[in-house]
Amino acid sequence: MVGLLRTTSRSESENSFFGEFSNPHFSLVEFSMQFESAMDEQRHRNAKLNADSESCIPVFKTPLPIERHAAAIYTLSVFYDVQKEICAACFSCFSTLVENIDDKLHYTIKDNRGMTFSVMYSADNSYASCSCKHYQHVGLLCRHIFVVLIAMGCPTIPDNYITKRWCKIDIAKRYLGSVSCGIEGDSNKENTRWKINHLWANIHACVALAENDSELLDAFTKVIKTQKQNLERSAYSGDSDLGKEQDF
């Protein structure tokens, strides 16, 4: 049921987003143009989020290396959610019992509300599970597991608990695509597609970085117009050197 609700909620969100760009009276051509506008808007939003994640340095609230690691791998908004759990592990939770059963550590964790949770941890494969099921629901580790990781002196979040959809690198990879290693013809096509996607990513990132500064927007627009003119002259004259990289 939880999965169904998530799917329904996601569909409603997508319908709401595309509803801003569509109309039931659109022709097929109009719909296609509006769909492209919607995709451009989505790319712009993603580029802005990536730019914010890369350019913003969060304020750390603990001296723990695991908090720095979280900031390095997660997008900014997701990091703040993880940071809350790390801080809660430090200041709002504590271990009341530790048992070693079948080479696995079983912790009883109590929070400041008086509620208790069970965490099982195996150092051999960095496996951890908590009775609160926070990771299964959200894809991020809970404060109770962070209590155990901090107690064990773990400097980083275990790889098997890093959900790729929340990571900076994974977002960039899915956005830019990857170059396949097929036959030469297919490889060239994939390489061209990757370059085009990479170019769009850079353009949208530049717009996201400059959108709040009129002077930066004007300067970037001037660069784009100048390069467009160079490319047009190159296309008309057949001289590819005209469209190559120039200093601005």
UniProtKB/TrEMBL annotation:
The protein, known as: Protein FAR1-RELATED SEQUENCE
| Record-level GO BP terms | regulation of DNA-templated transcription
Q: What is its main location?
A: nucleus
Protein location: Nucleus
SWIM-type domain boundaries:
117-153
What GO molecular functions are on record for this protein?
zinc ion binding
Record has Membrane as a keyword? no
| Keywords annotated in UniProt | Metal-binding, Nucleus, Zinc, Zinc-finger
Species of the source: Cuscuta campestris
